[in-house]
Amino acid sequence: MNELSTDNHKNSSSLSIKDLLKKVFFIDLIQGLFITFNYTFTKTITERYPDDEKWIPYKRFRGLHTLNRNKEGKELCVGCELCQKSCPTQCITVIPMEDKTGKGIADRIAYRWEINLLRCMFCGLCEDACPTEALKLGREYELASFSMQRQIRSKEELIKPQPIPVEFEGGVIVRATLEKGDKEIKVKPDLSVQKRWW
Ligand code: SF4
Ligand code: SF4
Predict the structure, then answer these.
(1) CA-to-CA distance for 177 and 66, rounded, in angstroms?
(2) Protein residue whose Cα sits closest to atom 8 of ligand 2
(3) Taking the model in full, what pTM does it have?
């Protein structure tokens, strides 16, 4: 019994001397700095967003809605209100009107088409319900703004051509530049220079 307690005492005293030496010579700190120093020479895997780089999501990504035209430039939305009715959070408002000017593919277009992004959960049910493929969930995900009013997007904004072409496959990091406007700061992608993120 006495031998055992003497051994334990020896072990604990040698351990504490080791710990003491480590503290005196800042061994843990030096080890930590050494690891950090080593990392300065390895390839960076983080994305330099938003200053230099931007991630372009895959085609199937569900971001900000787009209202589309056909190849002849006619509005595909016929104001049928199916998107509004299928939306579980009731964030879409559609007011239809008759139009004989040939602006759309039918005699009925959306006089007002509006979405409240504060309530949208990007489920895609509205896209599935649209009979004319006018409504798509696009790849725009930079939706932060300085005002809540900015989160209500109108037909006029959504029907504009999108900065990323529909055919672009995505899933890449591209070079980007910042564009500062009155309402928000936009990150503009340069699709000519791409790299995979994995
Ligand atoms: S994505 Fe879902 S929540 Fe958003 S508008 Fe469409 S149906 Fe509504
Ligand atoms: S976006 Fe589609 S579903 Fe919604 S009103 Fe227009 S045509 Fe109908």
Answers:
(1) 23
(2) 80
(3) 0.78
